[in-house]
Amino acid sequence: MNIVLFESQEIVGNTVFLEGRRAQHIVKVLRAKPGDNVRVGCINGKMGCGVIKNSNPRQPYSVVLEISLKQSPEPTPQIDIILALPRPVMFKRILRHATALGIGRLYVVNANRVEKSFWDASVMQESFYRKHLIRGLEQAVDTRLPTISFHKGFKPFVESTLPIMSSGYRNLLLAHPDVQSTLSVIFSNQSGRTLLAVGPEGGWVDYERARMQEAGFSMFSIGPRILDVETAVAALHGMVSLLSSATRN
Amino acid sequence: MNIVLFESQEIVGNTVFLEGRRAQHIVKVLRAKPGDNVRVGCINGKMGCGVIKNSNPRQPYSVVLEISLKQSPEPTPQIDIILALPRPVMFKRILRHATALGIGRLYVVNANRVEKSFWDASVMQESFYRKHLIRGLEQAVDTRLPTISFHKGFKPFVESTLPIMSSGYRNLLLAHPDVQSTLSVIFSNQSGRTLLAVGPEGGWVDYERARMQEAGFSMFSIGPRILDVETAVAALHGMVSLLSSATRN
């Protein structure tokens, strides 16, 4: 936890009262005492510093912070991701990693090779996914939650949702092992947002790739090695970030 | 498991007898039956195909494969990593991810911000780490195990080990948040191997960075976001791979 985050409704005047995980982090990990400063931020709002006015250093841990929020978060990351829903345990980690790496939006979609049972879980409920997004923000020192949406039908997603949103992107990219093009070759060096599609374990089926290409996506390969989705998301994010930042410089 | 791997000493004539995890994968996940082919490989050797001669489709699962190994693995990846020892649970995942992404060597080193207790565990024993490397090979479809070495003293590592090996690298790179240079700027586009140093949670301390710079490492930043080590390894590997492959094209 590199920043202590709270919701706007937790702010009373200029103080925030913390218990549980966040208070424990301040008291036990940071070993911060009354008078000390900690980095804080309001979710989807500004960052700043919190002065500890009071704390209970034993269980149940509690901390009262007097906060001052003046710093705007970094601009929204230039990358959004389309992700075929992975199994829940991996999905949680991807939510955390992708948020830490920095994404603006995450479109979670169905695909032929997504197991039906993955959709049965409570994955689409905010009470499930929001805490993993917040873990990512706490890691990266950011306050801006990615927007997340779920699309249980692949066909309505490519036919109705993609056409509306795709014009907002400079690059529409789909990673797939069996193609010749590399990312460096197909990446447009003009500035703009990138939408990166990452398939399920086993990959997109032919029909899905064809529909994504019709929707304007370019396919590229990162070589013959097969990566699990979790590793692929982080490695691909690194590649796209590098190309995007080269554009900005 | 995208390839079924075995040790050379498991090969008897041209057959391999499998039980446990690998047999279960072939029978239950691949649903392969006698006469079917599966992709196989000998660890640190060739890849090829295995024909199922016999199997027990119920517990205890077992499979007899007749193998033919003709395909050499891909060349050794162009990237090696220096990694400050992370906590064991994260170390296991990094071993798997880094092997899947493709590395030649992994130097696991001590650093000021590595908790001493991390070295107490059995992490340095082959019986601990080898299975995680193999999981990475099974994911990526490779047979070539990365070489792994442990360096419990940071000082002897930078003073004795680094000078000997560093001449074998074109790029010696150290990721650190508080520097101006970006990876694209400092990366040498001439072909050759890259050695990438990834610090502990909290980063390298000043002394360590100074010593690494003396040893020839260039520092670069990937921006203000703080990543956990696991995410950083995959994202940085992606970036270096992209720059290395651009060199080769």
Overview of the structural elements:
The structure is a homodimer of 249-residue chains. The first copy, chain A, folds into 2 domains: 4-71, Ribosomal Protein L25, Chain P (Beta Barrel); 79-248, Alpha/beta knot (3-Layer(aba) Sandwich). The first copy, chain A, has a 6-stranded mixed beta sheet. Chain A contains 8 helices and 12 strands. Helix content of chain A is 35%, strand content 26%. In chain A, helix 2 (88-101) packs parallel to helix 4. Chain A has 249 residues and is of the alpha/beta class. Chain A has helices at residues 20-29, 88-101, 117-120, 126-140, 154-165, 183-186, 206-214, 229-248; strands at 4-6, 11-12, 15-19, 37-42, 47-56, 62-71, 79-84, 105-109, 147-151, 171-175, 194-198, 218-220. In chain A, strand 5 (47-56) and strand 6 (62-71) form a beta hairpin. Chain A binds chain B through residues 2, 74, 97, 100-102, 139-142, 182-185, 222-228, 230-231, 234-239, 241-243, 245-246, 249, and chain B through 2, 74, 97, 100-102, 139-142, 182-185, 222-228, 230-231, 234-239, 241-243, 245-246, 249.
